[in-house]
Write a structure and sequence with these properties.
InterPro entries: Ig-like_fold, Ig_E-set, IPT_dom. The protein is an all-beta fold. The chain is built from two helices and 50 strands.
């Protein structure tokens, strides 16, 4: 049992943060009276007894047509005010009132609401709360005692703030009994009561609130947009459903609260869904596997030329939303074809080095770096594509992303770019990784870009290289540019140049039988064979042999290299065992079919 008696003198409870408890009618603060319109500044006394007179103080109160007290039917029309003017209203508190906030109406519109609740003098006595076990959200709880209709809030356990039910929302109110429903956010734990003033009571028996549970889903492999059913218990306490990527979906809950019906959003990805409860807790479903675009192979990713046909193999290509090529943009539907698990497109004019992006939706995409063919003796060290606006930074070549100790003094780096906003100012600034600090002389703070598209060439002195090594590599920043690729010169040595027309497995022995000193070749060197097909579009191959009997070279050199492109450079790495074989067996013979060889170089 809980029984507390309190004694009060006449008081006024102020609104908008103004407390007038204990004030008489003659010393009310009138500073708020300069406000325009109807305002409820204070009311009192509070606590009060039902049917007793209360005074409401404010501005323009002569416009008020009715006063609504908390509680069903607790409305006093202007005709029933005891007295009033523009500053004060005197009226009796309706017997139906419960603790809560007072509202002033003009017509049917609420124009002012008290910040603090009206409370009542009679001491609250609670003798029982039932039931206390097996409760679910929505179940009715009954509180018995005396003057329990003076309870302002019943607060269930939920985190720090609790889950309150206010008196205005009680389902039944009388002097000796009140009833209310368990709120959706309630959790097992204590229940406390207050009168809106300084009385508070914690019931000694904790309440058991049955939580929501997840038991399963009708399919783990749905399609986008497909209806799915999630099963469990007390699922009416689910506030939202979050699919991977933070995407929500509308849902309905069955009458028995055991089934949720919803649709998989069009923009999401594979993974588990999250059931977010009103209490703030959450449940996780089984993993959902959605039809997702995959890529297993590209026919070509390097030495690509305009007009080349690129074939991509994979799955679910019918789900593709867009394909973006570096330097070119989005391919139109008629610019590529899909046949089963194969996607084919022809390289358009304007395509550059960079990332090709295949998009299924905003959460599913595939990127592949592509490099165009170049006759220049340089190699691309970066081609991921980077749009720089407002001094963002690219750190791909910092923090171990590139080994700057392999770069020689006076090497020229080339930065291929175009401006994001043509005709506007733009700049590239090179920094080192540590705190994005400035590089030493002769590197300036920034390079202003005069052309809308071009190549910035920067010479790296030994001092700059040493700084990059010591301070964690290169950071690229600036404003208003899109960086396509960065290249570095290749230390290339021409071993042979001319024209060798190879048809029907003829052989070139210029680099055999003393034509080249293979003992001078460094282990791991890459040999570059520049070629052009005799008959474009037809099959062709290059086969590398040693001089003695034109026999095959040992592993890892295959018997032949089929040539996919009509023109290009075949690059072959020569490990030490291949060099040893060439030294021992009369050097290199080049044979095959349907190609014209114009240069052999090593790098």
């Amino acid at each position: 049992m809980n029984k507390i008696y309190r004694y009060f003198t006449l008081s006024m409870v102020a609104l908008l943060g103004l407390s007038l408890t204990g004030c008489s009618e003659d010393n009310l603060d009138t500073n708020p009276y300069n406000k325009s319109g109807v305002n409820l500044v204070a009311f009192g006394p509070s606590p009060i007894l039902r049917t007793h007179e209360i005074r409401i103080t404010g501005t323009n109160l002569n416009n008020v047509t009715s006063v609504v007290f908390p509680g069903e039917g607790a409305v006093v029309a202007k005709a029933n005010f005891n007295s009033g003017d523009n500053k004060d209203i005197y009226l009796n508190v309706p017997d139906e009132s419960v603790p809560g906030k007072i509202r002033l109406l003009v017509g049917n519109d609420t124009v002012a609401t008290s910040i603090t609740p009206i409370t009542f003098e009679e001491p609250i006595e609670i003798t029982s709360v039932s039931p206390t076990t097996g409760l679910s959200a929505g179940d009715e709880v009954t509180v018995k005692g005396d003057y329990v209709y003076n309870i302002y809030q019943a607060i269930f356990t939920n985190g720090v703030t609790g889950a309150p039910v206010e008196a205005e929302n009680f389902t039944y109110v009388s002097r000796r009994e009140v009833r209310f429903q368990v709120p959706l956010a309630a959790e097992s734990g204590v229940i406390t009561f207050n009168d809106g003033a300084d009385w508070e009571y914690e019931y000694p028996t904790a309440l058991e609130i049955l939580p929501a549970t997840y038991t399963g889903i009708n399919t783990k492999t749905p399609d986008f947009g497909q209806e799915i059913k999630i099963t469990g218990t007390n699922l009416h306490t689910v506030e939202s459903i979050m699919f991977p990527g933070g995407v929500t979906s509308e849902f309905t809950v069955s009458d028995d609260h055991n089934t949720i019906t919803t649709n998989v959003p069009a923009a999401t990805k594979s993974g588990a869904a999250t059931l977010v409860l009103y209490s703030g807790a959450s449940l996780t479903t089984d993993e959902l596997t959605l039809p997702t675009v995959t890529v297993t192979a590209f026919s070509k990713t390097k030495d690509i030329k305009v007009g080349d046909k690129i074939t991509i193999t994979g799955t679910n290509f019918d789900r593709i939303e867009s394909i973006t090529l570096p330097g070119y943009g989005i391919l139109a539907d008629e610019e590529y074809t899909i046949s089963g698990n194969t996607l084919t497109f022809t390289v358009p004019e304007g395509m550059t080095d960079g990332k090709m992006v295949i998009v299924q939706n905003s959460f599913i995409s595939i990127e592949q770096s592509l490099m165009m063919y170049s006759d220049a003796p340089e190699t691309t060290i970066w081609a991921n594509g980077f749009e720089c606006i407002g001094w963002s930074g690219n750190q791909d070549l910092a923090w171990g992303g590139y080994d700057w100790s392999t770069v020689q003094a006076d090497t020229q780096l080339k930065f291929y770019y175009n401006k994001v906003n043509a005709g506007s100012w733009g700049c590239i600034s090179l920094r080192h990784g540590d705190s994005w600090g400035a590089l030493p002389d002769p590197i300036p703070g920034q390079y202003d870009l005069s052309d809308d598209e071009g190549v910035l060439t920067v010479t790296l002195t030994q001092g700059v290289i040493d700084d990059l090594i010591a301070n964690n590599g290169l950071v690229i920043t600036g404003d208003n540019f899109y960086l396509k690729k960065i290249t570095i010169p290749v230390a290339e040595t021409t071993l042979w140049a001319g024209e060798f027309v190879c048809s029907g497995w003829a052989g070139n022995q210029d680099l055999a039988w003393g034509g080249y000193d293979w003992s001078s070749m460094a282990s791991g060197s890459t040999l570059c064979f520049k070629y052009k097909k005799i008959t474009a579009g037809s099959w062709a191959c290059i086969s590398l042999r040693h001089g003695d009997s034109w026999a095959n070279l040992p592993d890892p050199i295959p018997g032949q290299y089929d040539l996919d492109s009509d023109e290009g450079v075949l690059e072959v790495k020569f490990p030490q065992n291949i060099i040893d074989d060439l030294v021992a067996n009369g050097g290199l013979v080049i044979t095959g079919d349907n190609f014209i060889l114009t240069k052999v170089s090593a790098k």
